[in-house]
């Protein structure tokens, strides 16, 4: 953490005297762990996975930020039931939506008067906006920043990888071969830009019958774990298809908010969140060990 820990970044000397790069560095230094949620193609439930990872981490007591950089198809505010424009502080910083006291959210949709407007931006503008989402927002101290990246390996993915080189990617796929073929491209993208991969998540791996609770493989199962093994990355877990997730997303009420729910999806999300935390803790322990070895 930076020396300004516990303070508002608007009072930091770097904000008033430093360069934009110094301010960005200051903001990033206050974020302990950074997660970029990616997918090789659309339609695999990437944004849902980003929302549920962030929400599960927040419910476990972590300070969490969720940043939606899917500039052309933002969906995070709707899925969380967040309405209205983001406010600006007296120090001219963007104030994220507060879903809960320890869970903040920023999305381009929350900056548009007309949410049906099409965003027509080229790469340099996108890079500048993504950088502003960090440097000009009041995130303060976070344990995790989860970034919902648009599908594919375009401008947004390249920008966030450059802005946050110490981030780790969580790559989302579904069991079908067409999705797995595209996710292999995402894995190779991460390797090419030297973005560490936290692991692979297989979404919509099957359906638990609401009547008999029997597991039904809608597509097939096991493709995600086999791909992870073949590409030599961690497999973080599988999430079953649950119609309640779709309903909850449309209504802006994630099913994790239902305390009485004991669904297989809820259990799988909590297991996934634990796997993500363990992955970062393991990496931290390895870094400490390497540092001790060097000294």
From TrEMBL:
Q: How does it assemble?
A: Homodimer.
Gene3D superfamilies in alphabetical order: P-loop containing nucleotide triphosphate hydrolases
Its keywords, alphabetically, are: ATP-binding, Hydrolase, Iron, Iron-sulfur, Metal-binding, Nucleotide-binding
Q: Give GO terms for biological process.
A: iron-sulfur cluster assembly
Single GO MF descriptor? iron-sulfur cluster binding
One GO cellular component this record assigns the protein to is: cytosol
Question: InterPro entries per the record?
Answer: Mrp-like_CS, Mrp/NBP35_ATP-bd, P-loop_NTPase, YlxH/NBP35
- Which amino acids does the record list as binding ATP? 40-47
Domain of life, per lineage: Bacteria
Q: What does this protein do?
A: Binds and transfers iron-sulfur (Fe-S) clusters to target apoproteins. Can hydrolyze ATP.
Give the protein's recorded name.
Answer: Iron-sulfur cluster carrier protein
Family, per entry: Belongs to the Mrp/NBP35 ATP-binding proteins family.
